[in-house]
Amino acid sequence: MCKGLAALPATCLKSAKDMKHRLGFLLQKSDSCDYSSSQGKKEKISSSQRVSQEEVRKWADSLENLIHHDRGLAAFRAFLKSEYSEENIEFWVSCEDYKKTKSPAKLSPKARKIYDEFISVQATKEVNLDSCTREKTSHNMLEPTLSCFDEAQRKIFTLMEKDSYRRFLKSPYYLDLVSPPGAGCGPENCKRSHTHTLDCNSNIISQCA
What is the pTM for the complete model shown? Predict the structure, then answer.
């Protein structure tokens, strides 16, 4: 094999090396393009998920503003999940979805599913309702309508508004969105940063001396 290569003219060997070099370059370029394309897609997805600071600040105005925004709802749900109380927002979302039901034939099975999951005494994700509201909702199950969960939904909304919503606004789940790291600094922070830089420079100069 080696003897065979040695017997080839120098021009052939040079051409073979050039061809190998070109193939290697093309393969690297292809990998680079694939990586760039992948990165571009990730950046595009990331940018499409961004929320303006103005929009995030509106979430602090009311719970309604928060949970009627897709990203706000996702952040609030994640917060409730961290507190092991996500059944409240899941019930609220299920009620919203239920009220959009267009087929009368689907009302009864959907209503029964929501009742069994959130309101029944044996519910896997039982929400905190007073006995009067629970009994009224149970009675509504005899002839389910689009409004059969309205009172229960209002009670849970009020419960979240007075309790978990206020804690959410003080949690990192909200504060990290309304004041993201590196977004800027106030006069005091900038002053401290400038002072710290001067101190560091003074130390370096004294050490060098």
Answer: 0.64
